[in-house]
């Protein structure tokens, strides 16, 4: 196995399982809690976040290294990245309104909020602050989106199951949702050490 393949596999396992951006770094909690009531909307949100993360990284990475860094204005990366993310969110919203109106309606307020979604912004900033090549940065963004999609689907199933359970009245709504999210986060700790176990550190 060459170094490039090894690095990409490490990124895949890390982003999806061992250091999932939602469950271990608590990024993107708003859509995670707000849109995960139904599987269809969870899948839609997960796919859109993956789409925006992927294409935002394709633009933000070269903009950072070929424009911001040479001009010594790296501190402007947050503003620049938000503008790029906003562009893709608006593009995505226009496409959904025209071709997938039901999905657009189910996502509601959470679609425009993707502009300042901390998971998307966090991934683009981490890609330029880490020692990633362009290929690794783009793959990292894609895998981060897959990790987000995974937890959205799993958590939508958990919430569907909770609706059929006899839950104490005092825990109805957000309290039991947060408890379930915490337990789910703890379950992903079991994947810890996979990278070291497979690749030897």
- Unreliable runs, pLDDT <50, ≥5 residues? none
Structural class: mainly alpha
Oligomer: single chain
Give the SSE string: HHHHHHHHH
Evaluate the radius of gyration.
18 Å
Per DSSP, the total helix count is 9
Strand residue content: under 5%
Plain-language structure description:
This protein has helices spanning 3-18, 29-34, 39-68, 77-99, 101-107, 118-129, 134-162, 174-188, 194-199. With 201 residues, it is mostly helical. Helix 3 packs parallel to helix 6 (118-129) and helix 4 packs across helix 6 (118-129). The mean pLDDT is 85.
Features:
mainly alpha; about 200 residues
Secondary-structure blueprint:
Elements lengths: L2 H16 L10 H6 L4 H30 L8 H23 L1 H7 L10 H12 L4 H29 L11 H15 L5 H6 L2
Concise account of the structure shown:
The chain is mostly helical and 201 residues long. It has helices spanning 3-18, 29-34, 39-68, 77-99, 101-107, 118-129, 134-162, 174-188, 194-199. The protein is 72% helix and 0% strand.
């Amino acid at each position: 196995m060459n170094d490039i393949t090894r690095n990409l596999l490490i990124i895949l396992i890390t982003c999806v399982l061992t250091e999932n951006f939602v469950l271990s770094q608590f990024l993107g909690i708003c859509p995670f809690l707000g849109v995960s009531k139904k599987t269809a909307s969870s899948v839609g949100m997960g796919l859109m976040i993956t789409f925006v993360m992927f294409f935002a990284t394709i633009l933000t990475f070269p903009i950072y290294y070929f424009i911001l860094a040479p001009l010594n204005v790296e501190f402007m990366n947050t503003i620049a990245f938000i503008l790029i993310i906003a562009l893709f969110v608006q593009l995505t919203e226009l496409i959904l309104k025209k071709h997938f109106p039901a999905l657009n309606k189910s996502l509601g307020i959470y679609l425009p909020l993707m502009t300042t979604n901390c998971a998307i912004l966090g991934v683009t900033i981490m890609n330029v602050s880490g020692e990633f090549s362009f290929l690794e940065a783009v793959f990292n963004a894609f895998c981060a989106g897959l990790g987000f999609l995974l937890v959205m689907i799993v958590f939508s199933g958990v919430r569907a199951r909770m609706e059929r359970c006899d839950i104490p009245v005092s825990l109805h709504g957000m309290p039991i949702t947060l408890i379930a999210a915490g337990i789910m986060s703890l379950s992903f700790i079991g994947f810890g050490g996979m990278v070291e176990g497979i690749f030897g550190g």
